[in-house]
Amino acid sequence: MDDLFERSILIVDDEAINREILGNIIQTEYKVLYAENGKEALEKIHSNGSAISLVLLDLLMPVMDGNEVLKTLNEEGIITEIPVIVLTSEKSSEIQSLRLGAADFLTKPYDSPEVILARVRHSIQLFENSKIIHATEFDKLTLLYSPKFFFEYASIFDQRFPDKVMDAVALNFTRFHLLNQLKGRNFGDSILKAMAEGIRKALLKTGGIAGRNEADSFYLYIPHQDDYENLIQKISESLSSLLKPSEIRLRLGVYSDSERSLAMIQRFDHAVQACNSLRSKTSGSSDICIYDDKMAEKEVFDAHLLQDFEAAIEQKQFKVNFQPKFNIKGDKPVLCSAEALVRWIHPELGFVRPDLFIPLFEENGLVTKLDRYVWEESAKQIRQWKDELGITIPVSVNVSRVDIAAPDMTDFITKIVKENGLSPSEYMLEITESAYTSDSKHIIEVVENLRSLGHKVEMDDFGSGYSSLNMLTSMPIDVLKMDKAFITNIQPGNKEMKLVELVLDIAKNLGVPVVAEGVETEEEYKMLKDAGCDIIQGYYFSKPLPPSDFSKFV
């Protein structure tokens, strides 16, 4: 027996002699509690439930009989927590008691002590093993299958139904981490439980199984569906009591393998890839993507980029270009700084667009190494301009939330600034609005430290995320960088222009300048200047340029 803790057994019988007989047998290995009837038994179970490992329950008793006890334990869910062995001399009662949840029965007159102890040990062991399996089989929060058991049962499903076409489905809640941050973890847990309930209801119609992978990521293995809108609708309905329709943003990726040519985990990798391809979409309350040949080609392409990453760093295939920023407060625009932007010139593939490799490296943990490469090259370039041109051109570099999570991030920036003989004010940092809202406390601490060293910090992509005005007042920033989506389609007096004017008013009240990026036309330039914008960046002045071409602006 496991002696890490002492197990207690409750003997429930109205006859003292029976209680004594069983007690003398049981107490050799267990602590014994007694009750004379069902009512007393329930009182002791309620007060000592977690300490009781087994109940020996007589059926025929005054006040409350054994069947009533079993029914009550069923109704209260206790029968799943404590096994019950029924004591009876009537064969006809055994089936009824088993139906009510009894784990076993002992027939009066009792067998030898060895047999009784063996059956007690066996019932306790079976129940404890079952609880261990159950604890690992199901996710505690959602009560859906845990990842290990989900894949095992999905494979068993294939064996039992070899001719059925099945779909691997990956489902999650868009920007769940922001919801968690803004409304709290308990609210986030409520969302996950509601999603799980919606999934269970949907499975009643479709069949199949479901599991929770991690965070807000759910897996479903279900018979092939031609239309997944009904599934999305069912899950959305389960969230309607917690969120407004506009706040429910689900995305779903599907991989259908009629020939079952791939291992189960690979099918779900494809479903996840389809799901993640929807990450950048913001229109509509939900999105569905089916894995297809184009995605397969992209998977091969992405694998190629990942494989070539280290060589690209070593061989300096990544080129740092600089896009000028102009102060437009005076009569003429004046060059005031630049933003460092990375470009990849691949020896085989040629120019690889940043939107193809940067999200990929973010997902695979390589973005920090790439960012630090850009940071170093940028610091060297500021130094080179100072030496060759005799002036300082401040440069801003992009800092992701992944970068900020690195404990040595501040030390690394301090090192490259000192190595190149720069002052911190010449080396600016752009941090996206979404980074502030994802882990605001830690990021604010890091940013305050960087600003105390003399660096200027710009909030990049302002207006694209979920920061509230209250949060904005507590965020340490020196510059607001207006997301280029604000600039698109601005016309005098239209809604887009009014939003731009609102951002400019907010910045004025905060006492920080505004950079408008993505400015492409003279009309946009004039409207922004008239509205009081401080700095402009975009193709109207110049695309990002290699350092040799940038000097023409000096």
Blueprint of the fold:
Elements: E1 8-12, H1 16-26, E2 31-35, H2 38-48, E3 52-58, H3 66-75, E4 84-88, H4 91-99, E5 104-107, H5 113-137, H6 147-160, E6 166-173, H7 176-183, H8 185-206, E7 209-214, E8 217-223, H9 229-239, E9 250-256, H10 264-276, E10 286-290, H11 293-314, E11 318-327, E12 334-346, E13 350-352, H12 354-363, H13 367-389, E14 395-399, H14 401-405, H15 409-419, E15 427-432, H16 433-438, H17 440-452, E16 457-462, H18 469-474, E17 479-482, H19 484-487, H20 495-510, E18 514-517, H21 522-531, E19 535-537, H22 547-550
Parallel strand pairs: 1-2, 1-3, 3-4, 4-5, 9-10, 12-14, 14-15, 15-16, 16-17, 17-18, 18-19
Antiparallel strand pairs: 6-8, 6-9, 7-8, 11-12, 11-19, 12-13
Helix pairs in contact: 2-3, 7-8, 8-9, 13-15
Features:
eight-stranded mixed barrel, 20% strand, 554 residues, five-stranded parallel sheet
